[in-house]
Amino acid sequence: MTESHSLQVLKPGQMEIRPLERPAIGDHEVLLRVAACGICGTDRHIYHGTFPATLPVVLGHEIAGWVVETGDKVTKVKTGDLVSVNPNIWCGRCQPCLEGQAHLCMNMKALGVDLNGGMAHYCAVPEQLLYKMKPDTDPLKACLAEPVSCVLHGIDRLRARAGCRAAVFGGGFIGQLMLQVLRLQGISEITLVEPVAYKRQIAERLGFRTIDPVHEREALEQLSELDVAIDCAGAGDVLAQCIRMTKRGGRVLVFAAYPQGKEVPIEPYAVYRKEISLIGSFTYPDTQLRAVRMIESGQLLLDPLITAVDLEQAMSLIKGEADSTVLKGVIKFA
Q1: What's the confidence (pLDDT) of residue 1?
Q2: Pick the catalytic residue: 28, 45, 50, 61?
Q3: Which of 52, 119, 148, 292 is most buried by a 10 A CB count?
Q4: Helix or strand holding residue 29 (H, E)
C-alpha cells in the first residue's frame, strides 16, 4: 500500500495531518486521486464538536479527483475520468428514502463526516456518488459542485422567480454563490447584507448592491417588502431581520448551518400575521448534474471566490488561525 497524507479530526479540538494508507476498494467503488477538496463551514463545526460526526475521520466532502482504480463491477466511470462527488450515502429503506426524499435519510452517512473524505491524496468512493466532469475542467472549481448543488436545492425550495426582490444576509462563499444563482434566475433586485468589508467588495466587483448593517443602519431599515430573504449568516438576529424585512406572503430561507442546539429569537406573530413561509434547506437530492453543467459552462464566476491552499494552510483555516480574507479555501493536491 502507498501512503498519502490526510487531514484528520481525532476528537473535538484535536486535528492533525497524518499518514494514511492508500485505501482498498470494493467491487462497486473507485479509488480517486484527489485533485481538489473545498473547505466548508461544516468542517469547522466538526473540528469544534458542534456538528455530529464519527471520529476519527478524514475531513472533506467537497471533492473532485481523477479515477485511478475501479472495482470489478464499476461501469459508470473509467480510469482517467475527472469526477465530482456527492458525499451523501442514503440507506434507501427509511421512510424519507421511500417517500422520495433520500437527502433526509434517517441513516445517512457522508464522506468527510462519518467516512474518510477528500482531505487526503486518495479517497475511496462508491460509484453511485460520482459525476463525470469535462476533462479540461479546473479541479479547483469541479470540487465545488457539492456546495453549488446545495445552493440550487435551497433556491428551488425558495421558489425565487424572475422579477422578485431578494436579499442575502451573509457574504461568505455560500452567500456569494446565492447572489450569482439568484441573478441567473432573473431576480430583478438583489442586495447583500454583510458587515465585513472585503466580502462586500467582492460582491460589489461582481455587480451586486451591498449594505453594511453596522454603519449603514438607515439603508438596512429601508430594506423592506422583500419577496425572499436568505439567511446565510447563522449569527446574531439575522433570522429575525429576514422575517421583519420580508413582505406579506413572502418567503425566508434558513440556509445557514446553525450549530446544533443553538436557539435564536424570532417573532412568531410576524410569521403568522404576514403569512411568511419559513423554509429550511439541507443538502440536496437531485441538483448535482445541474451544478456540474453550471460549473462547466462558466456561468458562475468562481475565480474571485477561491484561494488555493495546502493541507497545512487548510488546518489553520479550519482552526481560524489563517488569513481572515480567504473567502473559500480549496485544497489543491499536486
Answers
A1: 39
A2: 45
A3: 119
A4: strand 29-38
Collapsing DSSP states into helix, strand and coil, what is residue 81?
A: coil
pTM for the full model?
0.95
Kindly list the domain boundaries of the chain, sorted by start residue: 3-144+302-332, 152-280
Among candidate residues 2, 5, 28, 42, the one labeled active-site is 42
pLDDT band at 3 (very low <50, low <70, confident <90, very high): low
Cell numbers describing residue 103: 437527502
CATH topology for the 3-144+302-332 domain? Quinone Oxidoreductase; Chain A, domain 1 (3.90.180)
- Alpha-carbon torsion 161, 256, 180, 289, what sign? negative
Q: What share of the chain is helix, strand, coil (3-state, %, to 5)?
A: 30, 30, 40
Instruction: Clarify whether 5 is annotated catalytic.
Output: no
For 166-192, the DSSP string reads EEEE--SHHHHHHHHHHHHTT-SEEEE
| CATH number attached to the domain at 152-280 | 3.40.50.720
